[in-house]
Design goal:
alpha+beta, 34% helix
């Protein structure tokens, strides 16, 4: 097992990785920006290094500053968490070239799956179902119009290099496609440095379901169940649950098998997620993308499988075997507690005056990045904490979620706990028969 690790991230995921590292006897080093000096992850690490100002480009995305911190502290491995540099192949290469252990998949796998068009083509070749779409970038509006004519409207216009629900738009006809193609192309150029655009079939009613995979040190790829991620705003997830209430046993088996094939196609090692669209009308599923990192929603998989995925990551990176559970039990749901207003979901940062997590409740876990007295700044993602509930059944998990949401107290920044209370009384969500348009119907 590696003896020390630098966590190249912040907030709740840094704190969560540090917690497992300390349990395993691994010395945990934190890096932090000037804006984050008082956050819990900095105080809980064995050692912490200031790497720059609040601007992520000068701190959490600053490769050289992170490598210098690893050298200064003697850290022998780097865990990137999610976001920032976690899916940056150049950073993964720089880490290994510096003689450090990279706790993640290879740079080659990150590169292969980082471009949506290339990933689609690889998956199709591996026998993984993909939605009808372009096999080459639609650089011009003429090529986009030609593709849409062949696919059939409406179509989804996507930034090929995008991620996290960014750089996506729906076009219902030629007029809309002309507008959205240019908008997505220019956004992608500005945000990702790559203006390549993918045209793909748009599904008006669809569910977003993903599979947790783990590439082991011995070369095998295994699947640890699926997560339902259809409660979204602006194509970004708010609630995830496992198992999905939408799948039959036959559909689940086919989905997991396809996810394993996807991982095998790129020689995947460490934790990753294969994201798919599921058509509840036809029962078909299609590959969406692969996230070559640990997901925000990994705790729901941990709850139903009884595994610590961060420990598994450390073990794979160390070349050690992992005891992989073969069966899941119960039901888990995660709620992303964000500093945003619960109606329009616009960011609402500010000082935290009150922070009381639900305690003493069965089946409740909170992974938080803040506490009372901290300040949520506008420099980073609005995620403050993740509320995870577990029950022997979905019904019990929902009941525990209602109690936990009611008991969670936050004052200061805006927060979306009132939305979760509303969601937990919504008949469509409670029935389990919802799709990715649920939040828009609620609003």
């Amino acid at each position: 097992m590696i003896e020390s690790v630098l966590v190249a991230n912040r907030g709740e995921i840094a704190r969560r990785i540090i917690r497992t590292a300390k349990r395993l006897g691994i010395r945990a080093v934190a890096v932090y920006s000037e804006a984050d000096a008082e956050l819990p992850f900095v105080l809980e690490a064995d050692e912490a290094v200031l790497i720059g100002p609040a601007n992520p480009a000068e701190s959490y995305r600053n490769t050289q500053a992170i490598l210098d911190a690893a050298k200064k502290t003697g850290a022998r491995a780097i865990h990137p968490g999610y976001g920032f540099l976690s899916e940056n192949a150049g950073f993964a290469e720089a880490v290994t070239e510096a003689g450090l252990v990279w706790v993640g998949p290879s740079a080659e796998a990150i590169t292969a799956m980082g471009d949506k068009i290339n990933a689609r083509n690889l998956m199709q070749a591996a026998g993984v179902p993909v939605a009808p779409g372009t096999t080459d970038p639609a650089h011009s509006i003429e090529s986009a119009l030609e593709a849409a004519e062949e696919i059939g409207y409406p179509v989804m216009v996507k930034a090929a290099a995008g991620g996290g629900g960014m750089g996506m738009a729906v076009a219902a006809d030629e007029v809309a496609l002309r507008e959205q193609h240019e908008r997505v192309r220019s956004f992608a150029e500005r945000m990702f440095g790559d203006g390549s655009v993918l045209i793909e079939r748009y599904f008006p009613r669809v569910r977003h379901i993903e599979v947790q995979i783990l590439g082991l040190a011995d070369g095998r790829v295994v699947a640890l169940g699926e997560r339902e991620c259809s409660v979204q705003r602006r194509n970004q997830k708010l609630v995830e649950e496992s198992p999905s209430p939408a799948l039959t046993a036959t559909q689940r088996a086919a989905l997991l098998e396809a996810a394993v094939r996807a991982g095998e196609a790129v020689g995947y090692r460490n934790a990753g997620t294969v994201e798919c669209l599921f058509d509840p009308t036809t029962g078909e599923f299609f590959f969406l993308e692969m996230n070559t990192r640990l997901q925000v929603e990994h705790p729901v998989t941990e709850a139903v499988f009884g595994i610590d995925l961060v420990e598994a990551q450390f073990r794979v990176a160390s070349g050690l075997p992992v005891e992989v559970p073969t069966e899941s039990s119960g039901h888990a749901i995660e709620f992303r507690v964000n500093a945003e207003d619960p109606k329009r979901f616009l960011p609402g940062p500010g000082p935290i005056n009150t922070w009381v997590e639900p305690t003493g409740l069965d089946g409740v876990r909170v992974d938080s990045g803040y506490t009372a007295g901290n300040v949520v700044t506008p420099n980073y993602d609005s995620l403050m904490a993740k509320l995870i509930v577990f029950g022997v059944s979905r019904e019990e998990a929902l009941q525990r979620a209602q109690a936990a949401v009611a008991a969670f107290q936050i004052a200061g920044p805006k927060h979306n706990l009132p939305f979760f209370a509303e969601l937990l009384s919504n008949e469509e969500f409670l029935s389990g028969e919802y799709d990715t348009a649920l939040v828009s119907r609620m609003r």
